[in-house]
Structures
1.
Amino acid sequence: MRLGRNVVILFSSLLAVAIAGSNLQAQTQGSDSVAPTPHAKTIHLKHVLVIGETKGFEHDSVPDAMAAIYNMGQQSGLWDTTMRTDTELLTKKDLGRNAKNLNYFDLIVFASTTGELDMDDSQKKDMMSAIHDDGKGFVGIHAALDTNYKWPEYGEMIGGWFNEHPWFTFNAPIINEQPDFPAVRHFPHEFVKYDEIYQPKDWSRDKVNVLLSLDPTKLNYDNNPRIHRTDHDFAVAWCKMYGKGRVFYSTLGHTEESWQDPDIRKMYFEAIKWALGMTEGSTASHPRP
């Protein structure tokens, strides 16, 4: 009887060890079969600085333009946006206070800025150096052409200056001259947009790549003293290089409603991507079609 009891105890002990070993093996196999937690994918966001300072005419659409660029970056996940209505960050100086400067940003956007902006000589030098030497991008929206008339390098960088809008806001007949360029490839060859088209001065087609222009055969020239270009060459959008920096400008975006137009939003979205170096597009000039 005692022997039988000892056998039962031994059997029970062996069974317990076997069960424990089985459970341990199952746990080990289970842990091996579960894939390790993947590392979070790091997305290197670009940094965009939008300036909306106005020292002259104040467009009602400035907030719409700034908000659109912010939303484009957030929704696409391609860039973050810092929006300012002053020019403090347009410098390479260390500002302290966790303030960013031009060394941080990859792209500068002037959203219908007007007049002589509050920038001292060192800021102007830093901004041109950031674009020309460091290869930062620049995108000018509408009244960015109506800005900094006393700063020759600015006009050289962007391509010219505002010289009135002969037809004010009207149904502008536009020709797509470069349908292979990322910012305008979604436009048809000919289309109409209700907007205010600037006439540029100190501007030459052979110094930029004209992307969009007014159709000269569909414009009214009668009794219009605001028309100053005798060649009737009215560019609507262009791109160019300024040293190492990519520069894009368009006169489109005057009205608040234009920023609800998916065509206009897509144009600036693709222009920003191009200016950031995310896509490719030629800046070579071409003859007027």
2.
Amino acid sequence: MVIMNRRQTIPKHLRYTIMDFDRQFPDVDACIEHLKEQRFPGGIAYCAKCRVEQKHHRIKGRPVYACDVCLNQISPMAGTIFEHSSTSLRLWYYAMYLMASTRCGISAKQIQRETGVTYKTAWRMFKQIRSLLSETDMQLEGEAVEMDESYFGAKRKRGEKRGRPSKDSSKQCVVGVVERGVGKGRVFATVATDATKATLHGIAKERILPDSVVFTDDYASYNGLDAEGYQHRRINHSAGVYVMGDCHTQTIDGFWMLVKSGLRGVYHNVGKHYLQTYLDEYSFRYNRRDRGNLIFNDVLQRVCERAELRPALVNPEMPVSQEAAF
């Protein structure tokens, strides 16, 4: 008899339920006010006409704020993924909440069914949200890391064995590096052109600090990592050995299983040109797995961090380089 754990597994301070979401964002106005506070705390923002920071107030019935002095208008959605979107801002927030709250992802078809938007709209929303989740500047700082490559895409050809595909295979190579540490280690995953020595060593030198202990399998392309300034330890997968003491690649293998299970069960098929954005989504959640449901707040924060600055009104007498932006 299997005894199920009936208790809530997420600590109370890390919970953020759909009821919490509804209380915080009951309507579009609440979402606009939240976005304004994130970008322009207290309503203080640079005014292009006054050329100084001024207090701004909301214009009733419109998602814009006007300067208290000259009435010049700014929009907290300008430069964000919400700009020029006719979809309700609350639906955008709801989509981000669902994407952040699930472990294996959520499909655009599910958003279509729940919100009533078209599939094209739902797909575009998720595409835009995923564009915020990349962490291209990440450098792994753990003293011990695991590195491995995996393959995504087309089914194996008839007679093709499991493991690394042949050179003429249509599968896409993906390389991952993960820090050791239960509940703490971060992962970086990237689409690679191939799994040659030059490619794998290049990724290692870009993402892993020197003198780190690097655990890999016995693939020949990892040869020479010790000459690059790393302490290289290997596990002989080809001989059927997967764990020997602390020498293994189980952590990165677990991440690959999480991604592949999600893509297979939720999205079914992902094109090569979009694969990196899905890897970014899974990596973003994995790297914040100790945040519980508060990952939603991290996604909201990314909206403002990645917002583009737009030029203010140009004064012909003033150099463009000195123009401010909002």
